[in-house]
Amino acid sequence: MSPPIDFVIRRRTFLAGTAAGALAAGLTTQAQAQSQTAKSPAGPDTTTVRLTVNGTAQEVTVDNRTTLLDVLREDLKLTGTKKGCDHGQCGACTCTVNGSRVNSCLSLAVMHEGDEVETIEGIGTPQAMDPMQTAFVKFDGFQCGYCTPGQIQSARAVIEEIRAGIPSHVTGDLNSEIQITDEEIRERMSGNICRCGAYANILAAITEVAEQGTAGEDI
Predict the structure, then answer these.
(1) pLDDT of 159-193, one tens digit each?
(2) Residue 43: phi, psi to the nearest 5?
(3) Where is the signal peptide (predicted)?
């Protein structure tokens, strides 16, 4: 027969056990409350967005998490705008919104209610190319061609930004007219990556269009 156990409840042991129990109960209650909150969405999951793309009015109902890039490619079937890194690092998805270039993979579609969006499909056709498209062909500014739509959209915007007096990190005298130099073009195009390495040809194409003064103009 085992000897009797001499068990004594001390005040410190009792209080420690009570505190631990209360903490556990509190955490359980908090977890249950969070679970109930998660099951009750704050608002609708989808939104109907009205925007103008390449001059055509569009209306799409999308999941609120959908990017502008996915709306262009998946909903509107404008696949010229490419999905490269999907992290805003390669520039393949560049298009313009209200005249300013954006990485469409980082921009939610619901942010663009009433906006005017232009993609590569909206600036020219094989029969009537935009001057920048013509220059890219002339100077062989592409090889595999995957980054080319974003490169062209960005290149057109670069020239307009310089003409509008918008400085870059390499702009020197902010009180004088910004010159369209190789350094300015390289800096402003640095967000568009060409894995084929056709940078010299791209620079030549942009420079010719800038010198002709035809960026953004229709042929």
Answers:
(1) 999 999 999 999 988 889 999 999 999 999 999 99
(2) -165, -170
(3) 1-33
Read off φ and ψ for residue 59, nearest 5 degrees: -135, 120
Domain-ending residue, one of 122, 149, 175: 122
Token pair 């300015």 is at which residue?
Answer: 184
Interval 143-153 mean pLDDT: 96
Within 10 Å of residue 164's Cβ, how many Cβ atoms?
Answer: 9
pLDDT of 54-63, one tens digit each?
999 999 999 9
Q: Per this entry, what is the length of the chain?
A: 219
| Same domain, residue pair 131 and 219 | yes
> Are the C-beta atoms of residues 170 and 187 closer than 8 Å to each other?
yes
User: What is the identity of the amino acid at 103?
Assistant: N
Do 62 and 128 lie in one domain? The reply is: no
Structural domain total, the chain = 2
Per-residue confidence (pLDDT) for residue 174, from 0 to 100: 87
- Name which residue leads in pLDDT, 25 or 114: 114
* Domain with 149 in it: 124-219
SS3 content of the chain, % helix, strand, coil (to 5): 40, 15, 45
Of the candidates 197, 191, 196, the residue with the CA atom closest to the CA atom of residue 92 = 191
Confidence of residue 3 (pLDDT cuts 50, 70, 90): low
Structure tokens of 56? 């055509």
Residue 53 contacts residue 122 (beta carbons within 8 Å): yes
Q: Which two tokens stand for residue 161?
A: 């930004």
